[in-house]
Design goal:
Strand content: 15-25%
Strand order of the largest sheet: 1-2-3-4-5
Number of domains: 2
Mean pLDDT: 81
Shape: elongated
Distance between the termini: 60 Å
Low-confidence stretches: 121-125
Structural class: alpha+beta
Number of strands: 10
Helix content: 25-40%
Length: 190
């Protein structure tokens, strides 16, 4: 239970079954968590470029769609001490992902919420990928990128700090980090 797939590696039959539970989906499928025992994906959590689809007997409602534009209003948490389903704080209870899955799922949902909040009312589209260990990776928010850039700068990992500042659109900070790198290299070679 809780086997995940990342696009383009989502099996077409599973995606078709999940989509059929909703009469079709909006946007492009990014990731699918199959919650069925036999692997049909009729019970699932499906991430698309537009939002999250879910379907399961233990969800409330049993099937639905939560657009990313609504994530700012959500407070993702474990439903209760003895109920590990995910409460959205909006009257929607997402299905149980697995024995420990709610912790990872809540973290993932909070990261998506953070991305939506940090990018304002602009595009809600983003890309979900997997790292070399097969774990789901959601892009960092701008604040998280800036924090990481600052930490890299403090560790004197100048090239990574510069790259991160540029990723965040902070070209002035990237320039300052370049200047610090030059001064540091001059002082260590003298």
């Amino acid at each position: 239970m809780g086997k995940g797939y990342i696009a383009p590696g989502i099996p077409p039959k599973k995606l078709q079954n999940a989509s059929a539970m909703h009469g079709g989906i909006q946007g492009q499928a990014l990731a699918l968590i199959d919650l069925t025992l036999l692997g049909s994906a009729k019970n699932h959590i499906l991430f698309t470029t537009e939002g999250l689809y879910f379907s399961a007997a233990n969800a409330t409602p049993n099937a639905g769609f939560l657009p990313y534009s609504q994530f700012a209003n959500c407070y993702f948490s474990k439903k209760s001490l003895f109920d590990p389903r995910i409460n959205t704080g909006m009257g929607i209870i997402l299905p149980l992902v697995g024995p420990k899955g709610f912790v990872d799922a809540i973290g993932l949902l909070d990261r998506i919420k953070s991305l939506k909040t940090s990018h304002g009312s602009g595009s809600t589209k983003f890309e979900i990928t997997q790292d070399r260990h097969g774990d789901v990776v959601v892009p960092l928010s701008r604040d998280e990128i800036l924090e990481r850039a600052y930490n890299m700068e403090q560790a004197k990992n100048w090239d990574e700090a510069i790259r991160l500042y540029e990723d965040a659109g902070e070209y002035r900070m990237a320039g300052l980090a370049r200047e610090q790198k030059i001064r540091w290299e001059q002082s260590t070679h003298s």
